[in-house]
Amino acid sequence: MLLGERLRPGDVVLLKGELGAGKTTFVRGVAQGTGSRVEVASPTFQLVRVYPGRVQLAHVDLYRVETGAELRDLGLEELADQGAVVVEWGDRLQVEGAAEIEIEHRGGDRRLIRTSHDLGH
Questions:
Q1: pLDDT of 65-98, one tens digit each?
Q2: How big is the CA angle at 50 (ends 30 and 55), to the nearest 5 degrees?
Q3: How is residue 37 annotated by DSSP?
């Protein structure tokens, strides 16, 4: 939730973690932090969902994206111009200045979360 409170337009967060690690649950907290009241769902079949809030939050899921052309068609730059972007399966992308967050499932409700870049706000 704290991350959502700090996000600004143009921020990109790349989430990494195995299937079931808790990436979508993490995004729910980020969306709440932006002030969004919309229910966050996995965008696996829609690829991109946009949530209104203090800052617009685009929730992108690259699980089913296989080619560079599909990545370009998502319009990540335009989404970042309009607000913040959180990308599940972010290890498939390289975005300069993006925060990288890895979520590791440790059994039960336990998770280890590692960050490799602070957004600097």
A1: 876 667 777 788 899 999 999 999 998 888 888 9
A2: 55
A3: -
| Contact criterion met (CB below 8 Å) for 93 and 110 | no
Both tokens of residue 76? 């990540």
Tell me, what's the pLDDT at 60?
92
Are 100 and 116 spatial neighbours (Cβ–Cβ below 8 Å)?
Answer: yes
pLDDT at position 44 over 70:
no
Instruction: Report the amino acid identity of residue 64.
Output: R
Q: Does 120 have pLDDT greater than 60?
A: no
Domains and CATH numbers, the chain: 2-115 (3.40.50.300)
Q: Read off the pTM.
A: 0.88
Which token pair is 49?
């969902």
Give residue for tokens 């809030």. 53
Pairing mode, if any, of strands 99-105 and 12-16? parallel
* Lookup: tokens for 18: 């195995």
AA letter at 53: G
